[in-house]
Design brief:
By secondary structure, the protein is an alpha+beta fold. The chain is built from three helices and five strands; from the N terminus they run αβββαββα. The protein has a five-stranded antiparallel β-sheet with strand order 1-2-3-5-4. The termini are far apart.
């Protein structure tokens, strides 16, 4: 059975798309730690990020870097934090979270619940800055 992320990539489940190429897909997390919290996935469904081939892993990181640059250009933050946890969805993914302190990257914190209109606005703004 396909993961929820594979269904998002296939367009079976809607998402707030940030960027996409032939191998990668980036979209807003619907349970964000901060506005602009983005998930970056490889389109090939692999459960554990370190099971990607060396070239897939490197390409995913480089794609995530470009997405992070777009987030930083869009969202007011000191940095874009990076986390790879991968326990909740069996599809390798990278969390990119706009942060101002280390505590901003604490996944035990209560998640935000932005309105759909705000999510669409954020996604569009970050997408515009993606190069």
């Amino acid at each position: 059975m396909a993961s929820i992320f594979s269904k998002i990539i296939a367009g079976e489940i809607p998402s707030y798309r940030i960027a996409e190429d032939d191998k990668h897909y980036a979209f807003l997390d619907i349970n964000p730690l901060a506005e602009g919290h983005t998930l970056v996935v490889h389109k090939r469904e692999v459960d554990y990020i370190f099971d990607l081939s060396d070239s897939e892993f490197a390409e995913l990181q480089l794609f995530a870097k470009r997405v992070a640059e777009a987030i930083r250009a869009t969202m007011p933050c000191k940095r874009v934090g990076v986390a790879v946890i991968g326990l909740e969805v069996p599809h390798a993914h990278i969390h990119l979270v706009p942060i101002n302190t280390e505590a901003d990257l604490d996944f035990r914190r209560e998640k935000l619940k932005p309105a759909p209109e705000r999510m669409a606005e954020i996604a569009s703004s970050i997408a515009e800055n993606f190069k």
